[in-house]
Amino acid sequence: MKTESETAHQNNTLRVIFEDRVGLNDLENFFPEVINWQPLYDLYVVKDEIVVTIEVTGIEPRDVMIYAGKTYLLVKGKRRSPEYLDKNCCVFHNLEIPFGQFFRRIDLPLPVEPHKIKVQIENGLLTLQLPVLKEKFIAID
């Protein structure tokens, strides 16, 4: 079962899709046809949550989609090239900034509660905070 949420950010929308099952079922439409690059990311555990920071400088929130499962994240999107590069009006001397479709799978070290994800984009960094899934103990008499 998939559910979808949208987070508003500066008149743009960042889409987050939640997977209630563990597994990559029904994701054929999620994967981009051509992957040009992968964004860098940091992952760390702070208290009872996992924090993932992804470098998304120059990417509009509307061009990013996050698929959140209990044990992984999938992030896809597109960095659009500046308009002046599309007009055949220059000679390229150095190109190091990647443009086009990107995709990144991030495996999480602990299971999380994907529906409680907190998303923030600031200064070119997408920060995802996911609470670690609490274990439930059932007493047996």
Provide key terms for this protein.
0% helix, 141 residues, elongated, Immunoglobulin-like
Written account of the structure:
This protein is mainly beta. It has a single domain, classed as Immunoglobulin-like. A 5-stranded mixed beta sheet has the order 1-2-5-6-7, with no helix packed on it. It starts with a strand and ends in a 10-residue tail after the last strand. A hairpin with a 2-residue loop joins strand 8 and strand 9. It is built from no helices and 9 strands.
Number of strands: 9
Kindly provide the radius of gyration, computed on alpha-carbon positions and rounded to a whole number of angstroms: 17 Å
The domain tally reads 1
- Output mean pLDDT: 83
The shape, in one word, is elongated
At the third CATH level, what is the topology name?
Immunoglobulin-like
Q: Helix/strand/pairing class, anyone?
A: mainly beta
Order of helices and strands: EEEEEEEEE
Low-confidence stretches: none
Widest sheet: strand ordering: 1-2-5-6-7
Amino- and carboxy-terminal Cα gap = 34 Å
State the CATH class. Mainly Beta
